[in-house]
Amino acid sequence: MILISKVPGLLLPLPRWSAWLDAGTRVLRVKGEPRTSISVDPKNGKVPYNFRGRIKYWRAMLRTQKRNNPEEQLLGDRCVVGFGSTGGPPMLPVLYNHHYQFVQSPGQVMILVEMNHAVRTIRIDSEPLPTQIRPWLGDSVGHWEGDTLVVETTQFHPQQSFRGAIKHQLYVGLNSKVTERFTRIGEQEIHYAFTVEDDKTYRQPWRGELTFRPSNGQIYEFACHEGNYGMIGILAGEREQGKNGLRWLFELITNMPEEVDHEQLGPGRFNRK
Length: 273
Prior knowledge:
Blueprint: E1 28-30, E2 33-35, E3 39-41, H1 51-63, E4 100-104, E5 108-113, E6 118-124, E7 139-145, E8 148-154, E9 162-164, E10 169-171, E11 177-186, E12 189-197, E13 206-212, H2 226-229, H3 231-241, H4 245-254
């Protein structure tokens, strides 16, 4: 699957095991149409940050490189929520653990996110939470428009503004509004469309869409403990390196990510017969 088009920012280095990844041989298809990007508006496939949004993005990006204390570790490393925007909203694929389980009851819809076993609870025909309450994955309220579940989410947690993963890096403001539409278009397909709005961060609302398909088997617990028993080693390593934003930027420039030139991961894999 081709993931979301690159947003303005740096591509994070891949670890050495990236050469063994199975990147697949087909592009994303939405309603049977091949796609090279999840983003559909703007047409260039890029997140339309305004000037303030770009500043927020880079400031948040560099802030993630200061990890000398437990509370400064990435949420994925702390096993709180998944990397990037896999838990959403918007719900975007990352490197692995792309499964979601939907559970519907009369007043709620629950979405279990495989990555880090996060759970989204969508309250149907409900009122927003008090503004001072900001869940990790935002406050989601849904309603039905025919056979389409429409979900509006805002009041994001401040530590969820920058969502960094290997395949996408994204900035979503504290009060950005994400509107999602889940529509079953066949026995084996759910069409997922989203719109992100925030005039303090983006030049215009931006939209994307993809397809959810069923998978055989159950979702096993993502028993993440790296940020628990590994915390002593993590902090010792970070403090020894004295790592900060500028050193990280230098290392990124002088160490080209493997993804750029590895034949198995490059775009040329789709041209193989």
